[in-house]
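Issue 218. Parser rejects a valid record. Input:
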Amino acid sequence: MRIFTYTILAMVFSLSGCSSQKKLVDNPPFELGQATCQAWKGGRAETGSGMLLEIPVLSENLDNIKIQQAYFRGMLADVAVTSNQGNWVAKANFTNNNAGKPDMVMHEDATKEVGNQPPSKQVKFPFELGSDECVISYMDGDTVKYFKIEGIKETKARIYQ
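Output the parser choked on:
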């Protein structure tokens, strides 16, 4: 009987856990304009390349709202909201740094290897998105919410010299 009780309790607690799938909000408390993305490539190999995502923020009142991150084409980047000629724009820069592996110190004395960085872990992307779709995370009070943007226009790539 005891094993049965523990099994039932374990099942109840496992079903009441937090959801790993992030829930999308249909109507965010702010209004966004037409989003655009632009691929860019640096003039030197160590500069890397990337994608710049720009989203006009049409709402003027963003009290208690903080736009945090953007999920786009399998990548994640922080979002910065800046003023551009009196208009607010949310920008996320997704970078691909192809500089190669960082230098590592290999020594028989382990204390000489202290500055080596551990390999980064790949995180499973939480959303299934098309190439013209993006998800924005934002803080509304104390909760993180997610909003999907569709129809992102891709502009001509920019190559720096």
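Fixed in the parser; the record now loads. The first strand starts at residue 24 and ends at 25.
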